[in-house]
Specification:
There is one protein chain. The protein has 244 residues and is of the alpha+beta class. The protein has two domains: 123 residues, Alpha-Beta Complex (Ribosomal Protein L22, Chain A), CATH 3.90.470.20; 104 residues, 4'-phosphopantetheinyl transferase domain (Ribosomal Protein L22, Chain A), CATH 3.90.470. It is 29% helix and 29% strand. It is built from six helices and twelve strands. A five-stranded mixed beta sheet has the order 4-5-1-11-12, with helices on one face. A three-stranded antiparallel beta sheet has the order 6-10-9, with helices on one face. A two-stranded antiparallel ribbon has the order 2-3. A hairpin with a 7-residue loop joins strand 7 and strand 8. Helix 2 packs antiparallel against helix 3. The longest helix has 19 residues. 33% of the residues are buried. Bound molecules: coenzyme A.
């Protein structure tokens, strides 16, 4: 697989609930590190254990599409906020990735020498969305939501994708930046006190799928952001590309 070009983000999708073959799951498990196995064991429900397993096998499988490094040989390190990145092989440290998972689906975003973040959320209405918005969103976003409540998950995933691209977790207050969602336009970001950053560093992509929303944040500058999506079964097949 050719490395992501400048301005390109590759999204690799996997669907844990569709994987039932015990031999394949065993192969995926064999790629995990001792720490990942330990974390996986701690999930109480079988479904959560499988989601963790498939998501982490997906990261390894996706990275191995770009380099002749077997999935089990990638070693990761965490920054102080828990963001993983490649430690070994050191020659591949410019390969940036970010993982997100939700009910029934996992996605890993991959780019070359570019900060990226991805967030996928199930849009099944099980939570009090208005309360979450009041608690976490900025006044500018809350005002937009009053006119367009169906945009809740647009804001949520965009905010998470940006936070994840910065890799600093919730040390960036969620109301210290705002997204502007104007119809038919790419989402734009504004920064407030508490979040020193430049809007022209970033571009964002938002996809509204059936039952889920996904957002990508990429430090691509003013160049266009191109997203290429692929579905895969980690450790099983050669994935087919879908350019979007
Ligand atoms: C942990 C956090 C990074 C993402 O959490 P999340 O949306 O629940 O989870 P996602 O599935 O999108 O991402 C999890 C993955 O991100 C990666 N990750 C962990 N810390 C990270 C960080 N600081 N920066 C970027 N990525 C990180 C890991 O690969 C993690 O996978 P793992 O837990 O299986 O090891 C953090 O932003 C958080 O806690 N968010 C919740 C904030 C919130 O309450 N938002 C409400 C409305 S906006």
């Amino acid at each position: 697989m050719i490395l992501p070009a400048e301005g390109e983000t590759h999204l690799w999708w996997a669907f844990p609930d569709r994987i039932h073959d015990p031999e394949l799951l065993e192969r995926q498990f064999a790629t995990l590190s001792a720490e990942e196995r330990e974390r996986q064991r701690r999930f109480v429900s079988e479904r959560d254990r499988k989601r963790y397993l498939v998501s982490h096998a997906l990261v390894r499988h996706a990275l191995s599409q770009y380099a002749s490094v077997p999935p089990r040989e990638w070693q990761f390190e965490l920054n102080p906020y828990g963001r993983p990145s490649i430690r070994e092989p050191a020659a591949w440290r410019s390969l940036q990735f970010n993982l997100s998972h939700t009910e029934g689906r996992a996605v890993v975003a991959v780019a070359w020498e570019m900060d990226i973040g991805v967030d996928v959320e199930s849009t099944a209405p099980e939570r009090d969305l208005a309360e979450i918005a009041e608690r976490y969103f900025s006044p500018i976003e809350i005002a937009q939501l009053r006119k367009k409540p169906e945009a809740f998950f647009d804001f949520w995933t965009l905010k998470e994708a940006y936070i994840k691209a910065r890799g600093m977790g919730l040390s960036i207050p969620l109301d210290s930046f705002s997204f502007l969602l104007e119809d038919a336009e790419e989402p734009r970001i504004l920064f407030h006190e508490g979040c020193p950053d430049r809007p022209d560093r970033w571009r964002f992509a938002l996809r509204r799928g059936d039952g889920y929303r996904v957002a990508v944040a990429a430090a691509v500058g003013t160049k266009p952001l191109r997203i290429i999506e692929r579905e895969t079964v980690p450790l099983e097949e050669s994935p087919a590309a879908r350019d979007t």
